[in-house]
Design goal:
cytoplasm, 30% strand, 6 helices, UDP N-Acetylglucosamine Acyltransferase, domain 1, Spore Coat Polysaccharide Biosynthesis Protein SpsA, Chain A, 361 residues, binds 2-acetamido-2-deoxy-1-O-phosphono-alpha-D-glucopyranose, Nucleotide-diphossugar_trans, 18% helix, protein biosynthesis
Length: 361
């Protein structure tokens, strides 16, 4: 089976974490987010993947290479992918696609059974099938209504709250017949959700939905990234390759620590969880609550970090306090006794002098 991974986007809502890495390369339990979808595709029987790259494509191509480390053959399609939109960019590789294939976003964390989605599509003899997840607030997504046969009868991208006629949303994972791309004009900007699906409905072509109940999170913003991290500790999101089963339940006993290689940690006080990359040094009496700290970070004595994401190569001085919802960009230095208020985004390369206070607007 063949698949296409959409990996060209910029991940603007996760800035400053996406200044030096595209969203698919943001570490999640110390592996790029895209690795989980690659593994899921391989487990579903995919043997060849075309990755549509764009923003900071070298980072993705260096890491995944020809795919041999991941048990799959990987090819890249670069060029004008962002300009062409999701469907337009996929059309560029469709001449290399032999049969029914899967298209997946590079940045969703899910336990969807991709094989079951594929088989459902085959059974329905659909031209395209969209995996549909149920969410509370659908306004950030494409929403669909299905009939009793799960044929999609209405679809709307990012509805206004008053237009939100359904809680079933496009999960960014599709199955297509190659012929669906006959509807996509060559070399023009054409998007699945904005153009192709509405066109299929207009022409009364068989577009199906596959509602699923398994875990799904598209990690749109820092808060959903931390939520997905917590969901691993709670056993809601399974990452089979990490044996996260063993982490389940730890939260009830104070805090869970998941750390990478060569970390030096002095008995920190953890509430909820702390996920650390490689080479993280943590001094005495540091408090960490529900936070993720990337690689090569030093946190000095007495610092307190609450519900934050700390980028790579960051230095956090003595007694620094970082409040809930903040993100510290890569290569930043926060000097001693500085306080970063709630929901503040500190850009990459920042240098914040001693005893400063940075508050949100
Ligand atoms: C134009 C487009 O493709 N929109 C998709 C896409 O939204 P983005 O905001 O572009 O990431 O992914 C969503 C799932 O993550 C899906 O619900 C939506 O329909």
């Amino acid at each position: 089976m063949q698949a296409v991974i959409l990996a060209g986007g910029k991940g603007t809502r996760l800035l400053p974490l996406t200044v030096y890495r595209p969203k698919p390369m943001i570490p999640f339990f110390n592996k790029p987010m895209m690795e989980y979808i690659v593994n899921a595709l391989v487990n579903a029987g995919v043997e060849e993947i075309f990755v549509l790259v764009g923003y900071l494509k070298e980072r993705i191509m260096e890491y995944f290479g020809d795919g041999s480390d991941f048990g799959v053959e990987i090819h890249y399609s670069n060029g004008e992918n962002i300009k062409l939109g999701t469907a337009g960019a996929t059309k560029k590789v469709v001449d290399k696609i032999e049969d029914t294939f899967i298209v997946a976003s590079s940045d969703v964390l899910t336990n969807l059974n991709i094989r079951a989605l594929y088989e459902y599509h085959k059974k329905k003899k659909a031209l395209a099938t969209i995996a549909l997840s149920q969410v509370e607030d659908p306004t950030q997504y494409g929403i669909a209504i299905v009939d009793s046969e799960n044929r999609i009868i209405r679809f709307k991208e990012k509805p206004k709250p008053e237009e939100a006629f359904s809680n079933l949303v496009n999960a960014g994972i599709y199955v297509f017949e190659p012929e669906a791309f006959d509807l996509v004009p060559k070399g023009e900007n054409f998007d699945f959700s904005l153009n192709l699906f509405p066109k299929m409905l207009e022409e009364n072509l068989p577009l199906y939905g596959f509602p699923f109940k398994e875990y799904w999170n598209d990690v749109g913003r820092p808060s959903s990234y931390l939520q997905a991290t917590e969901d691993v500790f709670l056993g809601r999101l399974r990452l089979p390759q990490l044996r996260t089963e063993s982490l389940k339940g730890n939260l009830e006993y104070g805090g869970s620590l998941y750390s990478g290689r060569r970390c030096q940690i002095r008995n920190p006080s953890i509430r909820g969880f702390a996920v650390l990359g490689d080479n993280v040094k943590i001094g005495r009496n540091v408090k960490i609550e529900r936070s993720v700290i990337f690689s090569n970070v030093t946190i000095e004595e007495g610092a307190e970090i609450y519900e934050a994401i700390i980028g790579e190569n960051v230095y956090i001085g003595k007694g620094v306090i970082i409040e809930s919802g903040s993100v510290i960009g890569d290569n930043s230095v926060i000097e001693d006794f500085t306080k970063i208020g709630a929901n503040v985004k500190i850009w990459t390369e920042s240098r914040i002098g001693k005893e400063s206070i940075i508050l949100p607007d």
